Amino acid sequence: MNTQVDLYANIHRGLRNLITHFSLQAGAVDWTDEAAVAQLAAKWEDVKMVLDAHHKHEEQHIHPLLARIIPGGHRGLEADHVAQHAVLADLDTHFQGLRDGAVQAEKRSQVGLEFYRGLNLFYAGYLQHLYREESEAQRALDLLCLPQETGAALQAILSSMPMDELLLTIDFLFPALTLAEGLGLMAAMKATAPPQVFAVLAERVRKARGEADWVRIKGRLNL
User: Fold this and answer.
1) Three-state DSSP class for 5?
2) Helices 34-57 and 9-28: angle between axes, nearest 10 degrees
3) Domain parsing of the chain, residue ranges
4) Closest by alpha carbon to 177, among 33, 65, 67, 14?
5) How far is CA 166 from the centre of its chain?
6) How far apart are CA 7 and CA 134, in angstroms?
7) In the 8-state DSSP scheme, what is residue 70?
8) Looking at residue 188, what is its pLDDT?
9) Given pLDDT bands bounded at 50, 70 and 90, which one contains residue 4?
10) CATH of the domain spanning 9-162, picked from 3.50.30.30, 1.20.120.520, 3.40.50.300, 2.60.34.10
11) DSSP conformation class of 7
């Protein structure tokens, strides 16, 4: 019997890793240091890109499954996405003022603290959304879909990811996985990616996991 595919668990662990680390960086940054704010801004662009792409993947490849098995089963999750994008847009507008000098120098630290607080308010709600998908949507998929259907959805998501998104995903996903889970994902990439593409992905995994784990991965997969 085929094993059901979990469409949420691994990528959500990666997203929690990404946002948690960004929150820590936003809490520690010196908002009066232009170079430090510029570095944080680059990471903020990554966070926005990842969340936007993740929502699109779910809406294009998972929500149609939910709509087919439960009448309106996707509606609440899509409403969450709309609300989350609105909050992210507000945070981005706020951050732009800190980047472009619109905020007076003597108030930058206080205004930066408001970005940090707003970010974590968003994060608190986003964690609840992730749990809802894992506890409600995945359970419905487990009960009412065949493993071939969820497997096809996962493959469609992976094949639709451009290289820059895939490499960034490796950066925040692989450190959040157990070694066994990382090995399983590496084995799948090795089986499906062209050799030259796999070599690029493998190097990124090496950097994401560190040398000690990479030695174990190489040994297990005969790389």
Assistant:
1) coil
2) 160
3) 9-162, 177-223
4) 14
5) 10
6) 8
7) S
8) 85
9) confident
10) 1.20.120.520
11) S
Amino acid at 203: E
pLDDT tens by residue, 86-136: 999 999 999 999 988 778 888 999 999 999 999 999 999 999 999 999 999
Tokens 């948690």 correspond to 20
Question: For residue 87, what are its two tokens?
Answer: 């909050």
Long-range contacts of 135-141, Cβ-Cβ distance < 8 Å, separation of 24 or more: 137/8, 137/62, 137/66, 137/73, 137/77, 138/6, 138/7, 138/8, 138/9, 140/66, 140/69, 140/70, 140/73, 141/4, 141/7, 141/62, 141/65, 141/66, 141/69
- Token pair of 101, please? 């000098």
Residue showing tokens 């294009």: 60
The continuous run of DSSP H or E covering 79 comes out as: helix 75-99
SS (H, E, C) 135-198: HHHHHHHHHHCCHHHHHHHHHHHHHHCCHHHHHHHHHHHHHHCCHHHHHHHHHHHHHHCCHHHH
